[in-house]
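Researcher: Next entry in the queue.
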Amino acid sequence: MRAGCRAAKGGRHTAAVWRRESEGLIQIMEAAGGRLIVSGMSEALALNEPVVFIANHMGMLETFFLPAILMAHGDVSFVVKQSLLDYPLFGPLLGATHPIALTRQDPRGDLKTVLTRGCELLKQGRSIVIFPQATRASAFTPSKFNSLGAKLAARAGVPIVPLALKTDFMRVGKWVRDFGSLDRELPIYFRCAPPIMPPINSRDAQAEVVAFIRCCLTEWGGQIDDGEVADEESEPES
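Model: Structure for this entry, 238 residues:
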């Protein structure tokens, strides 16, 4: 990762570098006893156009690992917290890949940023990865999973690829939230649903994404928490 960081700071960071760094992190995870199970990717990877990947969000592992998995489809940009770009090593790597950075201070402004900048990047051929939750959590709360990703895809006229994941192999940290203890008994799951093709009704697409994630987490023994109604303007976190 240090080499990738130097490349980013020197303006030499490329998609290939980012993907290679992500693959290296997966190898480290596997050496530490982790098991990665990936499924359902073939239809998404076969699409010859950018898409919006809409996923639940448990922790930092998905931000680290998804580039290696999704960049077989093409270049991707993540919707992330601005503060992630300040992380040592990881921040410069992420910052060199055209992320959509949100402040979390101005929900309306962040909404506009995602819709405007997201459409621009999609037109350039970059897929977007969005986690429509206000915070990372081990339990999936459907009512707090906002529809911003579906709205972006509908506005841009691109497919949605629902993405369910379970990454509680690494727990939320007690002292440093992004890095906690490892539970080697828990596999790491990533699964894509068949693409939802345009024209897209954002409300129907949102329901389909939520149902897919709920089904996968139930199968994997994940936690479902039916809680409060989502704030449609609350920004995603990465």
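Model: Strands lie at 36-39, 52-55, 76-81, 100-102, 127-130, 139-140, 160-166, 188-192, 223-224.
Researcher: Noted, moving on.
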